[in-house]
Design goal:
The protein is mainly α. The protein has 3 helices and no strands.
C-alpha cells in the first residue's frame, strides 16, 4: 500500500509540473537557470539553460521514479 501511495504522489507531481510548464512556459523560457540547478542537472551532460529546462528535468525525474 505504501508503494502504491508513493506512485500516486509521484504521478501527481509529474502532472503538476507538466501543467505548470504549459501555463508558465513562455515566462520560464525567458529566465536563466539558477547556477545550482545548472550544476545539479548538468552533471554528466548538458546543463539546463532556462528555468523551463530545469522544470522539465524535475518533471521528468518525477516520471521516472
Amino acid at each position: 500500500q505504501a508503494y502504491h501511495l508513493s506512485e500516486l504522489i509521484e504521478a501527481h507531481a509529474f502532472q503538476t509540473y507538466d501543467a505548470y510548464l504549459r501555463e508558465a512556459g513562455d515566462w520560464l523560457k525567458g529566465e536563466a537557470a539558477p547556477r545550482c540547478a545548472a550544476e545539479y542537472y548538468g552533471a554528466g551532460g548538458s546543463p539546463p539553460r532556462t528555468l523551463y529546462e530545469v522544470f522539465e528535468r524535475v518533471r521528468d525525474d518525477e516520471g521516472h521514479h
